[in-house]
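Key result, reporting period 2: structure in, sequence out.
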């Protein structure tokens, strides 16, 4: 869904004339799906991690934290940016309220951050996939098997 949202993204004020409805739906679906997953993860329902020490353990924790942060922040910042542009958002037929007032000029810093973070999350997701493959085929520690149980 993240890749689909990225591929269907539009930028700038042209969003006003032609709102990317599929982009909105995919982005909000990410938010709706990640929240219960994060709650379950925080409640201890995540697969047990492979034994890692030092920098790898720190990188793992930092990578997962950043990924979850972006999976929550991107949809909310996009909703904010659309609201600043005066574009109404519906999520599978449900009309969502604007979370800020519309402006005449550029939508602002949050919209810029949303655009840049969209690129960053793709790099991070790609790195996440590469690391999963590294665990599977180089370390052979069963990480993908543990992930598939959840």
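The corresponding designed sequence is given below.
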């Amino acid at each position: 869904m993240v890749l689909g949202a990225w591929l269907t993204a539009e930028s700038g004020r042209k969003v006003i004339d032609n709102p990317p409805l599929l982009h909105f739906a995919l982005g909000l679906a990410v938010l709706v799906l990640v929240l219960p997953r994060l709650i379950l993860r925080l409640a201890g329902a995540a697969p047990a991690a492979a034994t890692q020490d030092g920098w790898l353990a720190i990188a793992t924790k930092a990578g997962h934290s950043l990924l979850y942060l972006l999976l929550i922040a991107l949809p909310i910042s996009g909703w904010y940016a659309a609201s600043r542009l005066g574009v109404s958002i519906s999520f599978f037929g449900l009309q969502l309220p604007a979370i800020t007032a519309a402006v005449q000029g550029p939508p602002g810093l949050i919209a810029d951050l949303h655009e840049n973070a969209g690129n960053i999350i793709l790099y991070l997701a790609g790195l996440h996939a590469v690391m999963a493959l590294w665990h599977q085929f180089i370390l052979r520690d069963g990480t993908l098997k543990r992930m598939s149980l959840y």
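The mean pLDDT is 89. The longest helix spans residues 54-85. This case is discussed further under Risks and Mitigation.
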